[in-house]
Amino acid sequence: MKIALFPGDGIGPEIMDEARRVLDALDLPGLVVFEGDVGGIAYKRHGHPLPEETLTMARAADGVLFGAVGDPECDNLERHLRPEQAILGLRAELGLFANLRPATTFAGLEDMSALKPEIAREIDVLIVRELNGDVYFGEKGMRETANGEREGYDLMSYAESEVRRIAHVAFRAAQGRKHRLCSVDKANVLETSQLWRDVIIETAADYPEIELSHMYVDNAAMQLVKKPGQFDVIVTGNLFGDILSDQASMCVGSIGLLASAALGERQTEFGTFGMYEPIHGSAPDIAGQGKANPMAMILSLAMLLRHSLGREDDAVRVENAVAKALEDGVLGGDLGGPAGTREIGDAVLARL
Ligand SMILES: NC(=O)c1ccc[n+]([C@@H]2O[C@H](COP(=O)([O-])OP(=O)(O)OC[C@H]3O[C@@H](n4cnc5c(N)ncnc54)[C@H](O)[C@@H]3O)[C@@H](O)[C@H]2O)c1
Ligand SMILES: CC(C)[C@H](C(=O)O)[C@@H](O)C(=O)O
Ligand SMILES: [Mg+2]
After folding, report:
1. Domain ranges, residue 88
2. Which residues bind Mg(2+) (predicted)?
C-alpha cells in the first residue's frame, strides 16, 4: 500500500503531523509513505505550486492525503502560479470528479453548533460535490470592454456526461443511506443548471427506489440552517458544493471537523484511488501557533483508509477515536476550547 502525503501551506504541516502519528499508530503492514511539496511551499522551492515530481508521486500512490494550500505571500502571483492551482491541478489531472463531504453531528457537540441543539442533533448529510467542471474550469480571463473598462469573466458550463457521472455517484450513495437525494441547482436562472436538472431526472430512472427532490441553491442554504435533518444526500455542482459544505460545517460545530474524499474512476489493488483533505484551508491567521484543530485532517485519513485502502475497520477505529475525544470534551479553539493541535492529536491517539 502506498500513500502520498502533501502537507502544503499554513496549518497544513501541523495538522498533517497529527494525521501521520495516527497513521503510524495503526502500523499497517507493508505501508509505504511518500511526502511531496504542493502549494506555496512548492512554488518557493521548485518554482511551481504543483511540481511534476509531486504529480508523479500522486499517480504512483493508492491514495493521497492533502493538508491545505494557500499563502498570502503568493496572492499577487499570476493565477497559474498560485498555491490553489495545486489542488485544482491534482483534481483535474487525476480525474477526481466526485467529492464526498459528509457532515454528521458529533455527540456532545450540540451546544457548539451555530444552530439550536435540537436542530443540530439531526444533521447527517452527505454533500456530493462535482469537482472537475463548472465555473472553476471554464474559460476565464480579463478583457477590456468597448468603453475601455476592465472585465473579468469565468465561463460556467457542464457537459451532460459530467452531470451524469456525478449523478450516478450520488444515487449510489443514497442507496447505501436513507434513499433520499436532493439535487441543488439554480435552474430558474442558469442554463447550466437546467441541463443539470434534466440529466439528474433522466438518471433517476435507473434508481426508482430513491426519492429525488430538487432545490434552488439559495433555498438550500436557508434549509440547511433551518432544518438540516431533511437532507440525506445532496448532489450539486462545484461552486455551490464548495459554499454549502463550509456552511454545513458550522451546523455541525466547526470547519475544523469536516473531512472530504475526492474520487475518480481509477481502481487500485485495495479500493478506489482518491485524494483526501479537510474542507478548510490553510488558515494563515492561526498558522504556526499550534492552534489548529487536526480532526478534519485525521478524519480525512479515515476516509482514505476506507475508500482507497479497503481498511474499513481501521477507518471506523479512527473515526470512533475522534468522536470519543469530542465526547470527552477535548475541544480546540475553533470549538471554544483550550486544546491545541498536539494535545488533540494526543487525545485521539490515546483513544485509538
Ligand atoms: N483545500 C484547501 O487547500 C483550501 C480550502 C479552502 C481555502 N484554501 C485557501 O486557504 C487560504 C485561507 O482561506 P480562508 O481563510 O478563506 O479559509 P480557511 O478555511 O483557511 O479559514 C477560515 C477560518 O477558519 C479557521 N480554520 C480553518 N481551519 C481550521 C482548523 N483546522 N482549526 C481551527 N480553525 C480553522 C481559520 O483560522 C479562519 O479563521 C486561502 O489561500 C484559500 O484559498 C485552501
Ligand atoms: C482552495 C479552493 C480551490 C478549494 C475549492 O474551492 O474547491 C477549497 O475551497 C475547497 O473547498 O476545497
Ligand atoms: Mg472550500
Report:
1. 1-101+257-352
2. 218, 242, 246
